[in-house]
Amino acid sequence: MPGCHVTDQQMRRYMTLKMTNPVAVAATKSGFSQATGYRLQADPTLPSQKKAPRSGRRSDPLGALFETEVLPLLKSAPGLRPVAIFEELQRRHADLSPGIRRTLERRIRAWRAEHGPEQEVMFRQVHEPGKMGLSDFTDMGKLAVSIAGEPLVHRLYHFRLAYSGFQHAHVVLGGESFVALAEGLQNALWSLGGVPAEHRTDSLSAAFKNLEPATEKDLTDSMVGLCSHYGMTQSRNNKGVAHENGSIESPNGHLKRAINDALIMRGSRDFADLPSYRRFIDVVVGRINARNAKRIDLERACLRPLPARRTTDYQEVTVRVTSSGGFLLRKVFYTVPSRLIGHHLRGRVYDDRIDLFLGASFLLTLPRARATRHGPHQHVVSYHHVIHSLRQKPMALMGLTYRDQLFPRQAFRDLFDMMLAQTSDRQACRMIVDLLALAHDRGCEAEIAAQIEEDMRRKQIPDIAALRARFVPCADGLPKVEVRLGDLAAYNNLLSAPTMMQEAAA
Questions:
Q1: How far is Cα 166 from Cα 177, in angstroms, rounded to an integer?
Q2: pLDDT in tens, 391-411
Q3: d(CA 181, CA 157)
Q4: In angstroms, how far is CA 343 from the centroid of its own chain?
Q5: Pairwise CA distance, residues 328 & 378, whole Å
Q6: Are 215 and 330 in contact (CB under 8 A)?
Q7: Same domain as 402, residue 256
Q8: Among 26, 90, 249, 492, whose CB has the most other CB atoms within 10 angstroms?
Q9: Using DSSP, how many helices (H) and how many strands (E) does the chain show?
Q10: Is residue 490 one of the residues assigned to a domain?
Q11: Same structural domain, 282 and 353
């Protein structure tokens, strides 16, 4: 057929058929034209025997460069990457073709296989059930998770059993602190229902050295105490050698990919609140554990029993409430009720909150905030704590250091900015303070914010008198409750009844 090469098999078939058939018939039965038949008849050499020998191999694109320039670089710096050598050759030889890069990489790889230095060997380990649990932190910034539209800067504390693959994850809002490690580890152990013989970490600052400027304290003793409470032996891999903790370093990546897949399937990376996101993480981790259920059950039977109670998973601090109506802790100012001014409070600092005590009496819980090392001070402020004083000094709002944090909702801040532009500073401060006082007294913060937004859409200032009338209860509108007291003589009659007397005697 036109355009097709004749094979050796076709040639042999044609030569056999030609002995008993005309050329045209033999050629047709062999699968080619009559003209090809006559051509083959003139030269009966098989097609495979007619292939011209290949010309000499192409010249080495590197030429003498490999011996004269590449090898000296490899011998003087064994760790040098091939791409760096390629770039150096391009700087030395401007006319060098970029197409030689792959050839250079293959030549270097082959040379190193024969003459290169010895490489580190990874020794795969056999894990016994119930022997080792591992902890690590992993950054979650690339997943772009948000809470109510605000980006959530966080990490995951990740615990894993080396044998069965049981996993537990805990959302951490701060850095790698001992508090976060202690809380996450204990949550994992109590969720598991047992304790492994050994607990391993990498060189976590949380476990061994916390070098934050505000807390330059050696926390090794705290970590040892935590493990001793659960009867675990503490160990760690060498600093900077992550693969020594490979039983959790690799699962870190798998877990993050599983969470990312679940976020994609969910269709949104935004959550209504932090508890919702934590429940989402628990579901993802629960699915992973379900796949290893048999091995986990097997290892659970080999674990040591839990102690009678948890141990400390917080850091104790003592703070003094100043005349500013709060206290300063690690570059963050927290407000508290003004009646506590002058008192020393005990604080239990957790990863996400601070519990405050006056002596042995629990007072309140404050959300925890964090300030950067070289950044400005942060504020955790509640207008409920200072509104009674602001009523007396409303102009203090004008230059208040934490003014922006004082506004409980964006509507209050927007109204204040609008009034500053349209009225005097005094009128603006008085209006906002009156609105905050009304919200505090009547518990109608959301309703007032909604009314402010409606008034601003109409380009008018809220009517404080109308708001007071709306939210202050009217005496005429209160229900009238009539309380009827029973006749005391009725109780004497009950006591004198025969049944009652018999029961009293019995």
A1: 23
A2: 999 999 998 989 989 999 999
A3: 7
A4: 38
A5: 10
A6: yes
A7: no
A8: 26
A9: 20, 15
A10: no
A11: no
Same domain, 357 and 452: no
Distance CA 90, CA 92 (A): 5
Best CA proximity match to 437, nearest among 394, 387, 472: 387
User: What does the block give as tokens for 500?
Assistant: 């009652």
Sign of the dihedral through C-alpha 247, 253, 258, 262: positive
Spatial separation of the C-alpha atoms in residues 114 and 108, rounded to whole Å: 10
120 domain-assigned: no
In angstroms, the CA 177 to CA 223 distance is 11
Cα angle value 54/55/61 (rounded, 5°): 120
- Annotate 30-69 with b (16+ C-beta within 10 A) or e (fewer): bebeeebbeebeeeeeeeeeeeeeeeeeeeeebeebbeeb
Do 453 and 319 share a structural domain?
no
- Residue 483: pLDDT band (50, 70, 90) is confident
Residue 487 burial (C-beta neighbours within 10 Å; 0-12, 13-18, 19+)? exposed
**Residue 315, pLDDT above cutoff 70:** yes
For residue 200, count other CB atoms closer than 10 A to its CB.
Answer: 21
Cα–Cα distance for residue pair 166/184, rounded to 1 Å: 14
Please report, as a single letter, which amino acid is at residue 202: D
* Residue 121 DSSP class: P
Same domain, 151 and 260: yes
Q: Are residues 333 and 419 both part of a single domain?
A: no
Pair 159, 294 in one domain: yes
Amino acid at 359: G
Total domains, the chain: 5
d(CA 231, CA 425): 64
Q: What percent of the chain has pLDDT over 90?
A: 38
Mean pLDDT of 222-231: 86
**Strand, helix or coil at 134?**
strand
pLDDT band at 2 (very low <50, low <70, confident <90, very high): low
CATH of the domain at 219: 3.30.420.10
Statement to judge: residues 243 and 349 lie in one domain: no
- Could you tell me if residue 158 is inside a domain? yes
Domain of 75 in residue numbering reads as 65-115
Reference 465, options 450, 451, 486; nearest CA is 451
155-208 pLDDT per residue, tens: 999 999 989 999 999 999 877 788 888 899 999 999 999 999 999 887 555 444
Distances (CA, A) of 482 to 343, 476, 479: 45, 15, 10
CA atoms of 400 and 168, how far apart (whole Å): 44
**Tokens describing residue 62:** 């590197």
**Is residue 494 a part of any domain in this protein?**
no
Retrieve residue 55's tokens.
């010309």
